[in-house]
Design brief:
Blueprint: E1 10-15, E2 20-27, E3 30-38, H1 47-57, E4 67-71, H2 77-94, E5 98-101, E6 115-124, E7 127-135, E8 141-151, H3 155-161, E9 165-168, H4 184-190, H5 207-216, H6 223-227
Length: 233
């Protein structure tokens, strides 16, 4: 199994679980380039140019990479899809392994004290995505348990129930690609993803899908069903 972040290896990391996309290039565990870009309210897709800029700043090309890591969600549906498409495309072109990093774990790695933390991201509608992330004395992630979508007003009680310190996304705690070195053990245990089958964990249905299903009183048909003529309007 490929072990991420071995000394001397170069890695590209992309996360877009929130409305800010982050990109980092690592050599071993050291961040040699880091970039951030808005993912919402823009007229053109800006994440791929940001990836190119980060690679250029690091003096690297996709074929110089030992592998790639993509934030796996949960989070913003559209942003996650864009990041995953870029990561999968580069991994395929360069014939490099792609690892999926839980985006909630990217809120904690290397920046917080040892112990258990309840990481959460806004899921809208008064709810949050939540996970318990355990860190060792070096700040490395040694445990991860995704709890799903929970009511935001229950986060403090949930943290107490799991003996964890609440950690909510903010300016200093939002998921960051540059924090990925702390997830090396977790990624090694999970191994690289299947490029043909892997998709991010969106955490919940997209807003457009929810509205469509509410209006039609049934689940949105898959593309395959629609193309087969089995979906009515």
């Amino acid at each position: 199994m490929t072990t991420p972040f071995t000394s001397g290896t170069t890695w590209l990391v992309i996360d877009a679980s929130t409305y800010a996309g982050t990109v980092a290039v690592l050599r071993g565990r050291d961040v040699v380039a880091a970039r951030e870009v808005a993912m919402r309210g823009e007229r053109e897709e800006r994440l791929m140019p940001t990836v190119v800029d980060a690679l250029h700043a690091a003096g690297a090309s996709p074929r110089d990479l030992a592998g790639l890591v993509c934030g796996a969600g949960p989070g913003s549906f559209t942003s996650l899809r864009i990041a995953a498409s870029i990561a999968k495309g580069l991994a395929q072109v360069a014939a490099r392994p792609l690892f999926a990093a839980p985006s909630l774990a990217l809120m904690t790695g290397g920046r917080h004290t040892a112990g258990r933390h309840l990481a959460s991201l806004d899921a809208l509608r008064g709810e949050s995505y939540a996970a318990v992330v355990a860190l060792d004395d070096a700040g490395d992630v040694v445990g991860y348990e995704y709890l799903g979508v929970v009511h935001s007003d229950a986060l403090d009680d949930l943290a107490r129930a799991h003996h964890a310190t609440p950690l909510r996304a903010g300016e200093s705690t939002a998921p960051r690609a540059a924090a990925v070195a702390a997830l090396g053990r977790l990624l090694a245990e999970r191994g690289p993803v299947d490029l043909d089958a892997w998709e991010p964990d969106y955490g919940r249905k997209a807003e457009a899908q929810v509205k469509w299903e509410a209006a039609h009183g049934r689940e949105l048909p898959s593309v395959a069903v629609a193309l087969d003529g089995g979906a009515g309007s």
